[in-house]
# Entry
Amino acid sequence: MRPFDYQRAADTDDALIALADRPDAVYLAGGTNLVDHLKLGIIAPNLVVDISRLDLEQVSELDDHGLRIGAMVRNSDLAAHPLVRANYPMLSRALLSGASGQLRNAATTGGNLLQRTRCVYFQDASTPCNKREPGTGCSALEGFTRNHAILGASSSCIATHPSDMAVAMAALDAEVIVLTENGERRIPVVDLHRLPGEEPNRDTVLNHGDLIVAVELPAPGRGRSTYRKIRDRASYAFALVSVAARLDLDEAGRIREAAIALGGVAHKPWRATRAEEVLQGAEPNRESFTRAAEAELESAQPLPGNAFKVPMARGAIISVLTELAGRSGSSEGADDDG
Amino acid sequence: MDYSRHLGVDGTEHTLTVDARTTLLDALRDRLGVMSPKKGCDHGQCGACTVLIDGRRQNSCLALALSHDGAQVTTSNGLAENDELSDLHRSFLDHDAFQCGYCTPGQVCSAAGMLAEADRGAPSAVTEDLEAPVDLSSAEVRERMSGNLCRCGAYVNIVSAVREVAAQRTGKRAGQRSAARDDSARDPMTARAGDEESR
Ligand SMILES: Cc1cc2nc3c(=O)[nH]c(=O)nc-3n(C[C@H](O)[C@H](O)[C@H](O)COP(=O)(O)OP(=O)(O)OC[C@H]3O[C@@H](n4cnc5c(N)ncnc54)[C@H](O)[C@@H]3O)c2cc1C
Ligand code: FES
Ligand code: FES
# Structure
């Protein structure tokens, strides 16, 4: 690890000032991703600005019955928060499916959103990687692709975004509140992360020094919701494919609205808008669920090493929707999953 | 650059000067000689370095020491009181919950943190009803302890060891509650039978 200076930010302004004009400085929150990257030598800042004790640790209800989540709220505390458990079970489930009990105690809301890919080549400083070192090439294209993207990838990068929490937030229409040099900016979670294109080194639309201060969730949507994660072992592993979904049926039993996001398949949490369009107004049955899944996955461009993700995602979407539709029939009202 | 900071470890206060790169794990082991937390992977993937930071379990290998200035750190050593093994330590012995023992201090700290989380009603990925009180079934214990790997494969016995302590503590609390409700006439034998039953 290269030597660096350390400074604790007194408040959010102090943090912004510390990174202004310092391209060689980084924020440190829970450290579960950043410290790993320091050790792996894939980042080598000269200054680490500790934001972990900023007063951004509250979860509070908004006037419109939405929820504001401070950027320093720990993943474990957010998953266990009574309002999240009761009104946003999909978010609790997504958080609880990620990492381990001890990691979730350190990991923060802001850090989770901005964690970087787990692509093995990105994490290995000795291999070419366009995300780590633009212009060096993508080692994954001809390498190990089990964890890589099937949607929205480019010839420069096929990495996936690893967060579970962000997938639920994408399905929940959450917004990220960011402090920038020019004041506050609100960004929908679905627009926070980028597709790789020609600039895979840029994970998000944020600029250097931008500070996430909160995430806001709109009032809970109607219907039932859940999060399902498929992985190589039952716990403590990243998603191969994950699905966050909410399904709302009208009085006639038809689909009023569906919100679906996929994890493990793209460079960003993938909002499945094509599937949602197919489902709107449709009967909630296997036929429409299959059509929806296939519409979404039509543009998939898998590689031999991750082609299994296409049928896996298809199956996961159909199965989650079937489960939600089955349970919606029996009782109306509060969001619940099981 | 070096920085001077405070750290409480297992009840002893320390002032130490560390390079900014020092992790909490390296500060404990290399600087303070506290060898109880172990270095397995050094990347958050095995749990051998688990300690309690202000009562919450965390991986000390991914924590910068400077970030935890002023914290109270408890290692497996510190869970023992006056050289008396804690109920968790004792249970790991009784259940043969280790072979080489390398992962054990991390397992014990993780279990201590996990039991406190369950006590506060925190759900896990396998909890069916997110809002119901936690029942530490073996599936729940396995999920909640999944951040601690054991190369010797002592998992089955670790789960029994942790479940026994969970049951004992619940039994004890139930006993204390009924004692508080009816502190006039209480048969000590019944209380003990209750504890035995939960084993
Ligand atoms: C073994 C292991 C398994 C894991 N498994 C999973 C999993 O299954 N699912 C999953 O979703 N995650 C998983 N994770 C990742 C974990 O969730 C992230 O490491 C964690 O959420 C990052 O949060 P942090 O607060 O520790 O971030 P840090 O490591 O402190 O920071 C991460 C990045 O975000 C930046 N940053 C942090 N906060 C802010 C802010 N407020 N504003 C601007 N920039 C900021 C930092 O500069 C850094 O670049 C795993 C991690 C490990 C080590
Ligand atoms: S040494 Fe910290 S998790 Fe393995
Ligand atoms: S007892 Fe040997 S690693 Fe767990």
Observations:
- Residues 329-338 of chain A have pLDDT under 50 and may be disordered.
- Chain A touches chain B at residues 1, 3-6, 8, 28, 31-32, 35-36, 38-39, 48, 50, 52, 76, 79-80, 82, 85-86, 89, 92-93, 96-97, 99-103, 105-106, 234-236, 337-338 (CB under 8 Å).
- The longest strand of chain A covers residues 241-249.
- The radius of gyration of chain A is 20 Å.
